[in-house]
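Curious: why these numbers?
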Amino acid sequence: MILETTIIVIYSISLMLIFMYALAQLNLLFNYLSSKKKEDHSPQLDLSNPDEVPFITIQLPVYNEMYVMERLLDNIVELEYPKHKLEIQVLDDSTDETVESTRKQIERLHATGIDITHITRTDRKGFKAGALKEGLEIAKGEIIAIFDSDFLPKKDWLKRTVPYFKDEAIGVVQTRWGHINRNYSILTKIQAFALDAHFTLEQVGRNSKGHFINFNGTAGLWRKTCIIDAGNWEGDTLTEDLDLSYRAQLKNWKFKYLEDVETPAELPIVISAARSQQFRWNKGGAENFRKMLGRVLSSDQSSKTKVHGLLHLLNSTMFLNVLIVGILSIPMLYIKNEYAHLRPYFYVMSFFVMSTIIFFICYWFMYKNTYGSGFKNFIRYIGMFFVFFSIAMGFSLHNSIAVIEGHAGKKSEFIRTPKFNISKYKDNWKSNKYMAKNLSINVIFEGLLMLYFAFGMYSAFTVGNQGGDFGLFPFHLMLFVGFGYVFFKSLRSKV
């Protein structure tokens, strides 16, 4: 019984942690809905008054962006703002031919009177954080706007965001990401689905109550003095944006999140690109939990803010709990039907159902913001939710490895996400020179897990002596679909 007891305990703990996270999401939903009833009376700068117009530095950290570099620069120079109060820094860590092509484009733009400089480094020390820090040393702006290479802010973006810095306590203004290729494929749809939840439910839900939120690495602005006061950019985690965000808020700087300002960007269209992005985000989240745990607990923030902050930093760790629950659910199915006296303990399984229902409700409110309500959209939402949930679980092995490495303190390089500049499915992406060429060994294990959960579905028909047990069948079906999708998509991306 020692093995069975160990399985039950680990399974139950993981289920309870998922349930706690679901309850936190439900609380954020209540915060989100209540925030919609309030008017925003934040003080704003009058940009029509020259004396109130702050100097802005736009930083563009780039690395080998052959396919989107020209598009990025052509878009950024169209931003509407007084030219004498604006400079653009192209922080170029590239190691390929784009260094020369970027230099030529910058020279052409500079000749038109635009204050734009090309800053290169001899090494990538600190990766993105290192590039941002080096650019900051010579930045003329008191406000720093940052855009990754695949973002395309609208012309009035600065006019809609900069005014909020009238409040001297505001250290960051963050905008909501949009998705220029949302409908490209199932992969982009589920990525958009997850990001929309973060940029509505989570960011608004936390920010409206003064809880910790994060600058999302791009499509936002920092007050220069806030960056310096918080200790400047540090490259010891893979999510330097989350790191600096927490350090700034622990210094009592305020963050302003603007849900109504959308900044369009490109989603990864190939699963290998999505995998590298997911790995970086999830490992970085775990690294920041390790780094920030003591600081958050010892801060003067409210208990509720501390709890939300720690759950925020543990976001990525939920993948590890999902993987544990999935793997142990099949032994649990056999234990349940082998030991009748243990059946009362299996009521804990209902926590996963309750968690799923909570996520279903929370994500529906997010989905309505994009697609609208109504019966037809609700039916579409049901399908999208279960596709999303299945594929998210299919990523759980890959993301759990990232989380374990992060918590263990294992260091790794900052792996950029390849950009494609492709919006139609028929466009060719296989010639992209930046795609990973090797198939991860993890893909083999994902294929084995697909077969494992097929066995779980088969087991539903064979366990016990009363015609089977189908309570976990939907769960195993979703895991089978999720791991199958990730496995076969990963294989096809190498063909």
User: Anything to note?
Assistant: DSSP finds 16 helices and seven strands in the chain. The chain has two domains: 2-32+316-492, 41-273. The radius of gyration is 24 Å. The mean pLDDT is 92.
